[in-house]
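Section 3.1: Structural characterization of target chains.
Under the original work plan, the team committed to producing a structural model for every single-chain target entering the pipeline before any wet-lab resources were allocated. The record below documents one such target. The sequence was received from the expression subgroup and is listed exactly as submitted; it comprises 594 residues.
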Amino acid sequence: MKSSAQSDPDRLSWAELSTLMQFARGYASRAIWALVFLVLAKLATVAVPILMKSLIDQLDAENTQTSWLLAPVGLVATYGLLRAASSVFNELKSTIFIRVRMQAMLALSLAVLDKMHALSLRWHLERRTGGISKDLDRANTSLSNLLNYMVFTILPTLVELGLVFAVLLISFDLSYSAVALGSIIVYTIFTFSISNWRIGHRHEMNRYESEANGRAVDSLINFETVKYFNNEQTEVDAYRERLSNWTLAAERTYVSMSILNGGQALIVTASVMLMLWLATSGVINGELTLGELVMINAMMLQLFIPLNFLGTTYRMLKYAVTDMRRVITLLDTTPEVQDVDNAPELAVKNGEIRFENVEFAYNEDRQILKGLSFDIGAGQKVAIVGPSGSGKSTMAKLLYRFYDLQSGQICIDGQDISKVTQASLRRVISVVPQDTVLFNDTLRYNLIYANAEADDAAIAAALETADLSRFVAQLDEGLETVVGERGLKLSGGEKQRVAIARAILKNAPIVVFDEATSSLDTASERSITSAINRVSKDVTSVVIAHRLSTVVDADKIIVLKQGEIVEQGTHQSLLQSEGVYHQLWQLQVDEPAD
């Protein structure tokens, strides 16, 4: 796993900012126009103090009574035009830029979801849905703020500071510029220092919030399990503990903000007082006019308004990167399983499968499969059986290439599946899993999820083959019945039959049944087994089974034990050999008597 995100929370990474800014690149022309209008608004704002100086000096002149209808009125009108221009340009900027923000947020959301689907199974087994969801919400908000503050506040603010400083330098004594420059330096150092201190509290607050949200979502997803063990209060207590930590971190965050705001206000007040003292002295000594005093005061206020936004912008940039760091890390994560460069499509003619010296381990200290080699002929029904933990379901995951092998290869029609595209591999394999999870949508949606082009005739045929027709006919809303989250409104047998019908609609040349009957009652098992036999007629099928009674008619049965093939053959031949398979068969035959 790689990421450009910096481990140091006190530094902004340009690589991180670049990653985020790519989502707005398609709207560069709109961004430029918005920037132009904002700069024009800043120019109009800076011109107001200069205009006020002229107005006051005109009013203070000896001939004010004879010219009040001339220059002063014109200056007042110009003042109004400048204020109006500033407002209009700001609104034009916001109107043009709103699409940039919205489209960037849309692009980020799509990129994150696309990336999550591209990541390998191992990553999904380790993630917390609630935490990722909260991080994504924060990332969208922060990206919007980042675009607003970084692109359309920093540059215009620097322009405004430059204009104000230039006016002071040209129009007044050097001491005024020195006070202004010193104020900027002190204000900036204080703001950045306190902001860097605050960001640690913000990190803590976000981490605890994600943990609390993740725990809450996890408890709701496992609602039935919570009820089974009467652990509602346990879940509430666990949520309270994480939320209490978040509350303490949030309090520290807001207290530190008060310290920052108070310190900034003191620096601004001290700077303005010093500048006014210089200007007042200048007026008393006859070096400055009243208009110039007012202008200097307005300029100082004008100086700290954008400077205040610059401090806010710095904090917001750091907060944005803090909030988005997990999402940036996600976007930079390299999938564990990847297509090789220029990988061809898998071409399937017969559906022959070959495992050659396959070695695999989830972790270095635990070997799962140890040098497996076997063939599955075209159109054969091959069963894989063995004790729990022998590696049966792992073989199905490797065939679907959820993981890559440590050594050896798996071939379909002579093509190494690690050398072809994952998409083409998964198009030719249908899977009926042990635990069928359905979308919280209609029965029809869940069926055609395997083939969006399936018509009513194809759906009806799949339902008939999967022995699901009578069940659907009894439903008031038929195929439009909503199955509930994860299909909880259906029984285990009903969900398995839906999974079989879905596999039929996919119409793949290879079908894998991964312990599809292991958790069913005897009647449901027989019904599902009959459906499996019907589906397996014209395809290459791999049946991973715990119950041996479901695979007695298999063309070949492969027996695994501790990741190795210990036997293979037909049901009868394996019984006669009186090996591991015979022992497993006897145990299951004796179960009813026991």
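The domain at 434-507 is CATH 3.40.50.300 (Rossmann fold).
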